[in-house]
Design goal:
The chain contains 10 helices and 3 strands. The protein has a 3-stranded antiparallel sheet, with no helix packed on it. The longest helix is centred in the last third of the chain and has 40 residues.
């Protein structure tokens, strides 16, 4: 027992030693002259009383951070921070400005109508919804990359212009899926009384909640239509059991195999998924 505790302590101390490896930060040798003094400037800063030195300080252009003598490196700290911030917002964007919401709600209604409880599991439904979302949104994502991200990386457009051009494909996707009455209601709430009826005149802070509202309505309508045939099966089975005097037997226990049989014979997954994707076109 003591040996086991000693081994665990040694492993723990080794892990701490690995975590706290030496961290070095120094200016990159931009002029490639081979100097290794690891200073934050290439040349001496000069006299602060000189006007030329004040106008152009001799500071390095880039900073390199190396972990464990070069085994890890990180450049462009600002870009990394922006990427991390964007990643943290991805779940909210996925739920609000893509087709994910409608797809996952319809798949959930399908499972509830079959009364199979956890088959398919939640992870399977989320995976199906995610890949269907990528399939549906791929033209929009491609347009965002070609019109905004790539020109900004090449330096041909500024960040503000890239943001405006990146939002435009999303607007072109969301507006056809949004009910006009939802847009009108949110415009009135926001204080926009006079709307020309043009999609470009709808502010983004109005279009997104209107789009989410329309997606919820459409998903519940599709879910209601999916429920109808399975509800008929439940009613028929319940009537038969009652006529046979078997009122203590739950109708769902008998109707579930018939639901699954009907769903398989009708190729239900193909009908639901294919027609669900077509609702976005």
């Amino acid at each position: 027992m003591n040996k086991l505790i000693l081994r665990i302590c040694l492993l723990f101390m080794t892990a701490l030693a690995v975590m706290f490896l030496p961290l070095k930060a120094y200016a990159t040798d931009s002029d490639n002259n081979g100097d290794s003094d690891e200073r934050t400037y290439e040349d001496e800063p000069g006299d602060s009383d000189s006007g030329s030195d004040l106008a152009s300080p001799n500071i390095g252009n880039r900073v390199t951070i190396e972990l464990n003598d070069g085994n890890g490196s990180m450049n462009g700290a600002l870009q990394i921070v922006l990427i991390l911030a964007a990643i943290s917002l991805l779940p909210f964007l996925l739920l609000t400005v893509t087709s994910f919401t409608r797809i996952i709600i319809v798949l959930h209604f399908t499972r509830q109508a079959l009364n199979t409880q956890t088959a398919p599991p939640n992870m399977v439904l989320i995976g199906i919804a995610l890949f269907l979302t990528i399939y549906i949104m791929s033209p929009t994502f491609t347009a965002i990359y070609n019109d905004a991200i790539e020109p900004m990386n090449n330096g041909t457009i500024e960040t503000a212009e890239a943001l405006e051009k990146g939002i435009q494909p999303l607007r072109e996707y969301m507006y056809p899926q949004t009910e006009v009455e939802d847009v009108t209601v949110f415009l009135q709430i926001a204080g926009y009384e006079d709307w020309s009826g043009e999609p470009d005149d709808v502010p983004l802070q109005v279009l997104i909640p209107a789009y989410v509202m329309s997606e919820l309505r459409t998903a519940f309508i599709i879910g209601f239509l999916i429920y109808i045939p399975f509800l008929i099966i439940d009613m028929v089975v319940s009537s038969v059991l009652m006529s046979m005097g078997m009122m203590m037997l739950p109708p769902t226990t008998i109707s579930m195999p018939f639901k699954i049989l009907l769903f398989v014979l009708a190729d239900g997954w193909n009908l639901i998924i294919v027609n669900l994707v077509r609702t976005f076109y």
